[in-house]
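Changelog note: in this version the structure field was regenerated for every chain. One regenerated record is shown below for reference.
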Amino acid sequence: MESVTPLLSRHVLIGTWRDSDHEIGSSIRFTVAASGAGFSVRAVDTYDGEELQISDVRWNGHVLHFTCLVPSTGRLTNYEMEGRSPSEVVLRIAYTEVWQKAEAD
């Protein structure tokens, strides 16, 4: 049987993260906490205070994967968060939009 190793509170991903270009970049803040042998994620849009819905949180030992739903817009986004240093993470973002065919002019 595999043993569960709890994450230390000093893990590089633990904390609250904001866009490095917070003046004109994203207004979403992610808070990552240790949860047993994995992580929990909370996201808030600081522009309007909307709490985003997080699901499918997975840790592969190097990259934290999670999905985020913005209730007000229905936008579903997949994130990959990877630590660079205690003060910097790389956040890879992939989202899907539904487009409609334009009528001919």
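Spot check on this record: The beta strands are 15-17, 28-35, 38-45, 50-59, 64-70, 75-85, 88-95. Residues 15-95 form one domain.
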